[in-house]
Amino acid sequence: MAKTLPKLAFTILITILFVSSSLLLPITCQGQFSRKLSKKEMGLKREKLSHLHFYFHDIVSGKNPTAIQVARAATTNSSATGFGFVVMIDDPLTEGPNLSSKLVGRAQGIYASAAQNEVGLLMVLNYVFVEGKYNGSTLSILGRNSVFSTVREMPIVGGSGLFRFARGYAQARTRTIDLKTGDAVVEYNVYVFHY
After folding, report:
1. Ordered DSSP codes for the chain
2. By C-alpha distance, which of 98, 87, 109 is closest to 55?
3. Are 110 and 73 in contact, with CB atoms under 8 Å apart?
4. CA 136 to the chain's CA centroid
5. 61 closest CA partner among 171, 164, 172, 182
6. How far, in Å, CA of 68 to CA of 70, rounded?
7. Which InterPro entries match (predicted)?
8. 182: left (phi over 0), alpha (psi -120 to 50) or beta
9. Distances (CA, A) of 50 to 53, 163, 173, 185, 190
10. CA-to-CA distance for 108 and 129, rounded, in angstroms?
11. Pairing status of strand 152-160 against strand 167-177
12. Contact by Cβ (8 Å): 190, 127
């Protein structure tokens, strides 16, 4: 009997631990849709405001276009704005206005003609950075681009890497446009809050 008492005590202790941990499990993990977090828990420090400046090269002509039309409206559409066309892009972002200047990233996504009475594009894209401390980080843009306005402003709706929780805006100014080929160079100034 003396030998079974320690075994019984051990069995009772294990049972108590198992039951108490299973009672806590629903409170901490199961059935919980959301919970509040602190910035500290997420490793977030002080929010910063950064300014990025680069040039966007939208190349629709030649042997290696970086912007390709993937859809267009039916032939019955007589809109002068090209209403309904969709273009997939993987445009280089460079430090200077020349395509030969240092590559800092790529603009990847789509733009589509979303206005019937003017050239107004819906921009849905990511700036994917490949240079410096932002290498591997992205910024996401979702907004309207009225391409013939001198300055256009589009919202930054998020990001990844060093741009997690990003918000801000991108200002675009057309630097050059070739009306025959459609190729364009656009200067971007991006102002973004991030941690």
Report:
1. -TTHHHHHHHHHHHHHHHHHHHHHHHHHTTT-------TTTTT----EEEEEEEEEEE--SSSS-SEEEEE---TT---TT-TT-EEEEEEEEESSSSTTSPEEEEEEEEEEE--SSS-EEEEEEEEEE-SGGGTT-EEEEEEEEETTSSSEEEEEEEEEGGGTT-EEEEEEEEEEE-TTT--EEEEEEEEEEE-
2. 98
3. no
4. 12
5. 182
6. 6
7. Allene_oxi_cyc_Dirigent, Dirigent
8. left
9. 10, 10, 19, 23, 8
10. 11
11. antiparallel
12. yes
Report pLDDT for 26.
Answer: 47
Q: Rounded to 5 degrees, what are φ and ψ at 164?
A: -60, 140
Q: Does residue 128 carry a pLDDT above 90?
A: yes
Q: Please tell me the number of Cα atoms within 13 Å of 131 on its side-chain side.
A: 14
At 90-123, the pLDDT tens digits run 999 999 999 999 999 999 999 999 988 888 999 9
Residue-wise pLDDT tens digits, 5-18: 566 666 665 666 56
